[in-house]
Write a structure and sequence with these properties.
This protein has 215 residues and is an alpha+beta fold. The protein is 27% helix and 34% strand. The protein is built from six helices and eleven strands.
Length: 215
């Protein structure tokens, strides 16, 4: 069972990462889906998406949950029936979930040079003129994207823009963490973010700080 990594962030927050190596049939063993999720997975044309979907149910099982414990709101955000917060991510052959008593978000991205072409759509490129080389720039931009994607999942409000409303504080790779701020509709909120890199992928996860707005 390729549970790739488990991270205990704090007493209330835990991350589970799966490396998807098994065939769909193997991943389906021991997993009972709701009718809604059966229809979802049956409608997926991509085999890796089908396998990823099932691997997430194994991650939930690692955390003590079954598919019936999960539901989605009108904006597509996942929730657990017991009130615990959950966020889900899938990229190629890796999937992950984070569970917490706090509002949380997680994102996994494969590091690819295509991010250079879209960078100016989600972050001011002028901020990265001191980055040593293209490889380092791809690493940094992937972390920034993952942080903003995680926050977008947490915030879950239409109209929130990556470039306009979410700011990620600059960071050193060795720190493996940073902070971020959202300024949207006159409200400020603050986030703690952590990241890790493995096998050409980047995983970023974070949670909302409890401090009050500085306004």
């Amino acid at each position: 069972m390729p549970l790739y990594k488990t991270i205990t962030v704090n007493p209330h927050t835990k991350v589970f990462i799966w490396k998807v190596e098994e065939p769909f049939k193997k991943l389906s063993e021991g997993i009972e889906l709701t009718e809604h999720c059966k229809n979802r997975v049956n409608g997926m044309k991509s085999e890796i998406h089908r396998r990823g979907f099932m691997s997430i149910r194994h991650l939930m099982a690692e955390a003590g949950y079954v598919d019936q414990d999960l539901f989605y709101d009108d904006l597509g955000k996942p929730h657990l029936k017991n009130g615990k917060n959950i966020s889900i991510t899938h990229s190629f052959n890796f999937t992950a979930i984070v569970l917490s008593d706090e509002k949380v978000g997680i994102d996994i991205e494969k590091r690819r040079d295509k991010i250079l072409k879209i960078a100016n759509k989600f972050t001011p490129l002028s901020e990265y003129h001191t980055v040593a080389n293209e490889e380092a720039l791809i690493r940094k931009l992937t972390i920034v994207w993952g942080a903003k994607e995680s926050i977008y999942k947490m915030y879950a409000e239409p109209g929130l823009g990556f470039l306009q409303h979410i700011n990620v504080t600059d960071f050193d790779f060795d720190d493996a963490e940073t902070t971020a701020k959202v300024n949207f509709k006159g409200k400020e909120s603050f986030y703690e973010m952590k990241f890790l890199e493995f096998e050409g992928f980047t995983c970023v996860y974070g949670w909302e700080e409890s401090r009050k707005s500085e306004n």
